[in-house]
TrEMBL record:
SUPFAM superfamilies: SurE-like. Nucleotidase that shows phosphatase activity on nucleoside 5'-monophosphates. Keywords: Cytoplasm, Hydrolase, Metal-binding, Nucleotide-binding. The keyword Transcription regulation does not apply. Pfam families: SurE. This is 5'-nucleotidase SurE. It comes from Candidatus Scatousia excrementipullorum. Belongs to the SurE nucleotidase family. The keyword Ubl conjugation does not apply.
Amino acid sequence: MKILISNDDGIAANGIRVLTKALAPDHDVYVIAPDRERSAAGHSLTLHTPLRVEELETITGAKRTWVTTGTPGDCVKIGINAILSEDEMPDIVISGINHGPNLGSDILYSGTVSCAMEGAMMGIPSIAVSLASMQSDYEDFEFTGRFVNSLLKKIEGFPFPPKSILNVNVPSLDEDDIAGVAITELGSRMFTNTYEKRVDPRGKVYYWMAGELTNEPNDANTDIAAVRNNKISITPVTYEMTKEDYIASLDKILCSDNACNWY
């Protein structure tokens, strides 16, 4: 299988290096990643400045490796449209391994998830992978790397729904302490919207985001509850945002009797 790996933590992050090393023995792996951390970049793209790309010596086991000055979304978009040859086109895009969870509606801000979504937008099966911990030592990611390799074997032939990705979050635990895999829905929010008002040494006011973990029932079928229960959460996520069940009722209100020119 040909795999394109990217991330939002940057080319030097331990997560992307562990993932590449874990997958390379069984697959043809290509790496295109930002030159620095781009966490919480969301689905932004570079439009008003040049997007520079440089090929590097390969990360352990990768066929080829590139670094860009762009966002996570840029990496996948330019990789598929301009960098990779026809023979290198990926069968799947994998974003990660992110250090830190990407759970609930907070995925809307996530560069890791948006990186995978870019692959899905181009019709390529895509997976976002996160380690639910702020620890970022190399060894912390090794079980997650092995899990992703096992996951690829399990889902071989799985018909990815169009416009969708799998969002994977792995608890930061020893392998023996993981309680299994849970197929989940997105939770609400991982953190509350709390800002601390502070004053710097020059007397200027500034704000620091300092949200606390939200409470969610442990028996909820959500990604947040699964990780709290020491399970690996796998959530199918789509960027198809149209609320189709509201179209008919809204049309009835605004365009009844074919009178849609009421303005």
